[in-house]
Amino acid sequence: MEQFALGIAEAFNGGLDQFMAYHAEDVVHVTAPEWPESGTYRGREEVRRLWASILSVHSEHEIAVDEIVVLDEHRALSKLRWTARGAASGAETTTPIYTVATERDGLIAGIAYFLDYDMALAAAGQPERTLRERPPD
């Protein structure tokens, strides 16, 4: 599961086509409630439109994996850093993001995104698990 979670970041960094090729046809992405694009996106086409829209406002972007917690044989919680540069402003931002990814047949069956560590743990049903370095409050 750890290699699968690392593969998600690698695919994301490889561009939208590479990222989407790593998805099951019936994939579901649930975005963080704080995101302007907050919601549930079902199927490759909806997920592609979501990420095309998000990435269109960035001239550069990269995901770095800080840590992965294997939850079970098909799910992992990842602590990520998303660094992006605004296409219009040129401003660079780095945002911590937590994901709970579900694998099926070697593809992404679902990803839920969180900006809050405790919400990610609760969604994963793992309130007792902790990352080695708890993020600052």
Short description:
By secondary structure, this protein is α+β, with helices and mostly antiparallel strands.
What is the number of domains? 1
Oligomer: single chain
CATH architectural category: Roll
Structural class: alpha+beta
What is the CATH level 1 assignment?
A: Alpha Beta
Percentage beta strand = 35-45%
β-strand number: 6
Helix content: 25-40%
Distance between the termini: 28 Å
Order of helices and strands: HHEEHEEEEH
What's the main sheet like?
A: 6 strands, mixed
Strand order of the largest sheet: 2-1-6-5-4-3
- Calculate the mean pLDDT score and round it: 91
Overall morphology: globular
Helix count, per DSSP?
Answer: 4
**The CATH topology, please?**
Nuclear Transport Factor 2, Chain: A
Report Rg. Answer: 14 Å
Low-confidence stretches: none
Fold and architecture overview:
- By secondary structure, the chain is of the alpha+beta class.
- It has one domain: Roll (Nuclear Transport Factor 2, Chain: A), CATH 3.10.450.
- Helix content is 29%, strand content 43%.
- It is built from four helices and six strands.
- The chain has a six-stranded mixed β-sheet, sandwiched between helices.
Q: Which terms summarize this structure?
A:
6 strands, Nuclear Transport Factor 2, Chain: A, 137 residues, alpha+beta, 6-stranded mixed β-sheet, globular, 4 helices, 43% strand
